[in-house]
Amino acid sequence: MLLINNLHVSIDDKVILKGIDLKVNAGEVHAIMGPNGSGKSTLAQVLAGRDGYTVTDGQVRLDDEDLLELSPEERAHKGVFLAFQYPVEIPGVSNIYLLKSALNAIRKAQGLEEFDAMDLLGMVREKLKLTGMNEDFLYRSVNAGFSGGEKKRNEILQMAVLEPRLAILDETDSGLDIDALKIVANGVNSLRSPERAFVLVTHYQRLLDYIEPDYVHVLADGRIAKSGDKTLAHELERSGYGWLEQRGAQAGAPGNP
Amino acid sequence: MNSVAIKQNFRREDAVAHYLAAFKRQRASLPGSGIPWMQRLRDQAAASFAEQGFPTPRHEEWKYSDTKTLQKQRFELLTGGASAAARKHTDAHRFEGLKSHRLVFVDGRFSADLSYLDELPARAVVIPLSQALPSHVDTVQSHLGHYADMDTNPFVAVNTMLMSDGLFVHLPPGMMVEAPIHVLYLSTADGGTSQLRNLVVAERGAEATIIEHYAGPAGNAYWTNTVTEIDLNENAGIEHYKLEEESDMAFHIATMDVHQRRDSRFTSHNAALGGRFVRNDINTRLNGENAQCALNGLYVIKGRQHVDNHTRIEHVTPRTVSRELYKGVLDGWSRGVFNGKVIVHKYAQLSDSEQANHNLLLSPNAEADPKPQLEIFADDVKCAHGVTVGQLDADALYYLRSRGITKPEARSLLTFAFANDVITRMRLEPLRAHLENIIRMRLPIEAAELT
After folding, report:
1. pLDDT category, A167, cuts 50, 70, 90?
2. Minimum CA–CA partner of A141 in chain B
3. Average pLDDT for residues B394-416, to the nearest whole number?
4. Cβ separation A72–B398 shorter than 8 A
5. What pTM did the predictor assign?
């Protein structure tokens, strides 16, 4: 589904990603771990199409298409979803209005019939249960005045409603207490399916106690320093990221088994 | 003579002479001409206008708004009545779902045909000013010209000299008029001027909702000059809407002076959408303990539109409260001026004032000139003010786009959300819906043109 090949990315002439290779198939869950500043969030943002990043080399393909050629909204229309590390507050736009506009924009682009308000509300109510949110949330402005946990749960709600094929979660676990973490994990697990892939970007191993990844990759200094299965995450928990400092550059990227 | 020479020959005194001559011609036929004090008031106004002339940008209050283009036009004071075309236009300016009392003025003259006042409570007086001048002459005399100052604002002077008609409301003590009073001021004549004068007197505990609604067909150049005076007695409440939807070529100058006594409540919703050159002056005097006012404003402009909102809130007595929020959405080469003065007098202790003006620039060529002015002479007061001029939030745009919403749609959505903050403060749902529709219709196209 997603194929990243030798991806090099700079921000303002500062090189952040120095040759990423990654292959994600439908139905898989990949965890990307790594210390602060390793380029994890840059990778997530480049996949979603944020301005300000320069791809200096490499390709990213989503199925048969060049993902990097698409605008952020076109990527969403193709089924890409990014759960933001810092969800944006939008005063004056209600959650339900955002969900309706987004879902119908995607359906329209896909040549599907748009949802009417009643059908949408029925569907959204079901998804609300999944994230443990009250219906009042729908009528509040997007993320405005939300707590950190509420913002992250709102990302999961959007993901559940938009049903992406490729969901990228950028540090969705950071700053969450254990209950909120379980809700987020539960949301992801319930959406796992043979047609859908997940890329979980995280600093800590604890999210992976609740979402079992198929593959774990360790990002260091703009490269994938090591890849493995879920046992790699446990190894990281024991030894931390310190070992990367020594091995770092020469470790290379073994790629997926 | 070439066109450059014509420009050089423009003289402000000629424009003044044009309107003084119009007054001289029509002095005997204007409303109240048989009433000596009224005639004196008009004559005094003429003298005051002759002395002041039209304002120049050197005038501090007119620094950003040059009235030269208005002066060059020499608009004619009309004497005709409503045409058949007016009926069609009037129907187009109803608010869907709003049950209201209704007065229609066409080119500055009252049209009984197009108005509907049958369901007013018996003791509420809601009539055109031209009728009130004979029938309620004492009330008119004790209020008209008492609040709006013709000696410092030349447009009030012109208006006092030439006023042809307008709304007169007198609410006896305790009277509550449930349905809003919708006043439509329609300009149909290209090259004409309407000099409108409104007077609202609410006695103790009386309440009403008034909608001043200004409109004219696109492409017509005309000048609306309107003055509204409102006196709120103890515990009276007026909710005032002003909806300016003038033609894209129109000049619109409006002055509103409000006098508030103890425990009175005044709310103003001021929406400027149309017009080529628009100036609003809204002044309120909180002259009684616990008097409260809320001034909300929204200007959504494009092209070469110029909108200048000047507000002045005077806290005269202790424990008075003012809240003010003005928001502007500026596209094209438009210019939005906000000058908000809050004056807290020496004895107005424990007064509480909040003022904010936020401007959203949709185009690199649009300009916002916000100017908050606080003059505080009391020492125990709460005053806050804030001003912003900015563009759409890039992070919010990206966030919406990452959810599949297209760039023009995302721009529209954020712009609408910005404006809606003011609209949601309006109590009347049909007016909210009307404004939302207008703004929605404007947005996608406008937004798509950008970057």
Report:
1. very high
2. B417
3. 94
4. yes
5. 0.87
Instruction: State the average pLDDT over residues B194-200.
Output: 98
Q: Which residue has the higher pLDDT, B117 or B440?
A: B117
Is A125 within the bounds of a domain? yes
Q: What is residue B315's three-state secondary structure?
A: strand
B409–A contact, CB cutoff 8 A: yes
Q: Which one, of A84, A92, A73, lies nearest residue A142 by Cα?
A: A92
DSSP string of A61-99? EETTEEGGGS-HHHHHHTTEEEE-SSPPPEEEEEHHHHH
- B395 neighbourhood in chain A, CB within 8 Å: 88
Residue B56's contacts (CB-CB under 8 Å, 6 or more residues apart) are B12, B62, B66
User: Within a 10 A sphere around the Cβ of A207, how many other Cβ atoms?
Assistant: 25
Answer whether residue B5 is part of any domain. no
Whether residue B398 and residue A158 make contact (CB cut-off 8 A), yes or no, is no
- Would you say residue B400 lies in a domain? yes
Determine the structural domain holding residue B434 and report its residue range: 396-451
- The C-alpha atoms of residue B67 and residue B60 are separated, in whole angstroms, by 13
- Quickly state the pLDDT bin for B443 (edges 50, 70, 90): confident
Map residue B407 onto helix, strand or coil.
helix
Collect all residues with Cβ–Cβ distance below 8 Å to B99 and sequence separation of at least 6: B179
| B386: alpha, beta or left? (left if phi > 0; alpha if psi -120 to 50) | beta
Cβ B287 vs Cβ B311: under 8 Å: no
Q: What is the ipTM of this complex?
A: 0.93
Read off the amino acid at residue B332: G
* Domain housing A224: 2-251
Which of B257, B286, B315 is a domain's end point?
A: B286
- The interaxial angle of helices A148-162 and A178-191, nearest 10 deg, is 10
Distance CA B242, CA B198 (A): 12
Cβ of B439 under 8 Å from any chain A Cβ? Answer: no
What are the tens digits of pLDDT across the range A96-127?
999 999 999 999 999 999 988 888 999 999 99
**Which of B260, B286, B312 lies at the terminal end of a domain, its last residue?**
B286
CATH number at residue A62: 3.40.50.300
How many Cβ atoms from other residues are within 10 Å of residue B304's Cβ?
13
